[in-house]
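Sample intake — DNA polymerase III subunit delta'
Collected from: Bacillus yunxiaonensis
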Amino acid sequence: MTKTWEQLSLIQPIVVKMLMNSIAKERISHAYLLEGPKGTGKIETAMQMAKSFLCLQRNGVEPCHTCTNCRRIHSGNHPNVYTVTPDGLSIKKQQIHELQEEFSKTGLEATKKIYIIEHADKMTPNAANTLLKFLEEPSSDTTAILLTEQSHQILSTILSRCQIVTFRSLPKDALINRLQKEEVSISLGNLAAELTNSFDEVLSFCSDEWFAQARTLVIKLCEALEKDTTSLFFVQEKWIKHFGEKEQLQLGLDMLLLIYKDLLYVQLGEEDRLVFQDQKGLFQSFSYSQKRIVSALFNILEAKNRINANVNAQLVFEQLVLRLQEG
């Protein structure tokens, strides 16, 4: 979906103001690092920057979105805009070499060249050192845009050569207010807004039947855990079928974390902070101690880490359920 600078300013006003001023004054850095949590508009901003740099009919700082360059950037096939993404779990040295080779070619359509590196923190040490050499000899017609959620994992020597642009999480209240205008269910909206800072992603969650069913299954799992004897049967019959992919299971675990946080809020008498507001009566009926809730939160986080480490997801989850059952 095409975003304008005005639309992006609703998400990241400080970032957009700074970038628009730089573009207006033609003070473009040779390298930018866009850092911040997932869903805060980094990739959309990088694409908007590329359009503003290369647009043939720019109106002030706003690209036209309709010229050949804008359309080709939007579709991902402009020869002067090169994007690098992780190959598997990392960005490899060969990928940076291919970027350098691509940019050394002559006869490209415009003088300005832009490369975007997504998840720059996932570069291997060799890839990072290769990129550093590229950054150390900046060309006046080349702009690097690095994106990361974890800038602390990037070489300090790379950071020192970039203009760092920090993206802030969109306040939850702002997300909820925008969702209400879209007539999104409050129960789904509250949950989605806890899982992502991206308004587009929240809307996508709330319009997906899978997400609504996932919310229901997480609540039913908690009820099964309370009854002790039915939880493993529930996992095998219902849960595994619905959360079949790794990313889906991680999302399910995130929802489970939020439920246990809600149980803690009930214990502390802070019901106004509940994410699952419509389940307040159910949560009040549970007889969980604070110690058991804290233990559950720890075990869920540990399960998420094990799944990220590529341990068998179904086995990890079944072990988690047994631990949650035992308290």
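Post-analysis note: The longest helix spans residues 246-268.
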